[in-house]
Amino acid sequence: QVQLVESGGGLVQAGGSLRLSCVASTRTFSRFGMGWFRQAAGKEREFVAGINSGGNNKGYADSVRGRFTISRDNAQNTVYLRMNSLKPEDTAVYYCAAASHPAGSRQAYDYGSWGQGIQVTVSS
After folding, report:
1. C-alpha to C-alpha distance for 105 and 27, rounded to whole angstroms
2. Closest of 105, 84, 96 to residue 33, by C-alpha
3. Which of 7, 37, 110, 115 could form a disulfide with 105 if both were Cys (CB 3.0 to 4.6 A apart)?
4. CB–CB of 83/92 below 8 Å?
């Protein structure tokens, strides 16, 4: 399994921005699709964004499309989630995940490694 460590979360006012980072402890980072998921209190974990191994194919949940941007730096073993125009409903624990194949995916079962999660709180 790949170890994943998220950073960059915190408290922000509605309309503000944050950038989450996720560093992977593997020499084969460039082979894996990566994704971000989130789980709000009392709700199921949901897909936020995914990116393929080469970084040229990305997908987003409808609720974040146009506001969030996923990217990756394979030289730094890092995947990012830039979050703009944040809303209170974006409040959740955000998880980074590594897929077991090069494609990105919207399905949690395609991801074999998960970070511990990081809290993002958006105040109104």
Report:
1. 21
2. 105
3. 110
4. no
One-letter amino acid for residue 109 of the chain: Y
Three-class DSSP category at 1: coil
In whole angstroms, what separates CA 8 from the centre of its chain? Answer: 11
Cα separation, 119 vs 100, in Å, equals 25
Note the pLDDT tens digit of each residue in 5-38.
999 999 999 999 999 999 999 999 999 999 999 9
At 96 the pLDDT is 98
Average pLDDT, the chain: 96
β-strand pairing of 18-24 with 78-83: antiparallel
Report the distance separating Cα 83 and Cα 68, nearest Å. Answer: 4
